[in-house]
Design a protein that fits this description.
Strand content of chain A: 5-15%
Largest interface: A-B, 40 and 40 residues
Radius of gyration of chain A: 16 Å
Distance between the termini of chain A: 37 Å
Strand order of the largest sheet of chain A: 4-6-3-5
Oligomer: homodimer
Chain lengths: ~180, ~180
């Protein structure tokens, strides 16, 4: 990720990122949610949260939460995500970088929804902090245009952005 | 709100509810975000969070966050919200109750989007915990159909639900 100064940093994993994104993913039929962090302590934290809800006390207290959090897989890098998908027998996904700032070669969500309708695997990349590092955009197959509200202000949380994108790309919204 | 057993309870105010919903509201041009809780300590907590970002250190650290959190107003009840709106010179809003379970007299988001396009004030009611109390549905002018993903699973966080509803009702999504 980038920090506010534009340096490449590893952002913290937030408990509610896991819950909100997993719950939205489960609702929209997303196959897996990868949490990517190179920080060992953040990986351990994320794994502890997931374990609590998937196999721990939380799974009995709230089975619906288990159904969501079992979609979560934790990896140290994007390469790790692609390797894990391959090991699980998935075809190599097209990668889609998301951003809050308009960029060259951006496609809009309707265009992407059409592409995804073929059923080929797509890996949607969302960042926290001040956004994804430049190298992610360089290597991504597609860059999705920013989610625009009705004004210039555009500072959604990654939880909100993921939820809106799932609804736009996977929802059956106009029926 | 209701708890898992169906009793009427006051749910806790979560820090990220304030941030995520205010940021999404600001992005989509929502005029105000009311946090309603009858619990004095929860009100104080919410006010402290908002003050930190609107007038405290947070407002200098992250002015964009201030622009969002200054939309937040804290009230003890729905009646308090309506009184506050009236005192601020707003016309009486139509109230729209939201739910994760299909109910009678529900309208879909496209129908509601059309009604809202007139510019009349609408007050969207979202619940935490196990949803809004029955009396809210009885008194609401409209009940919005649940957000449906592609499967039966439907357990979005209030943060995700608010973000998706703003995008569906206020977004310029199909352009």
């Amino acid at each position: 990720m980038l920090n506010r100064k534009g340096d490449i940093v590893a952002s913290a994993v937030t408990n509610l990122d896991l819950h909100d994104i997993a719950r939205a993913a489960r609702t929209y039929g997303v196959r897996a949610v990868y949490i990517v962090t190179p920080l060992e302590d953040q990986k351990v934290l994320a794994e502890r949260i997931v374990d609590h809800w998937v196999s721990g006390i939380g799974s009995e207290y709230n089975p619906k939460r288990r159904e969501a959090l079992e979609l979560i897989r934790i990896q140290h890098s994007l390469e790790g995500v692609l390797t894990d998908m391959a090991q699980r027998g998935a075809d190599t996904p097209r990668t889609v970088a998301t951003t809050a700032r308009s960029r060259n070669r951006g496609i809009d969500h309707l265009e992407l929804k059409e592409k995804m309708a073929t059923g080929d695997p797509y890996l949607l990349l969302l960042g926290t902090a001040w956004g994804l590092a430049e190298e992610i955009f360089d290597s991504a197959d597609f860059i999705l245009d920013p989610i625009k509200g009705i004004c210039e202000y555009n500072h959604l949380s990654v939880r909100s952005a993921a939820s809106i994108l799932f609804d736009r790309l996977l929802g059956d919204r106009d029926s």
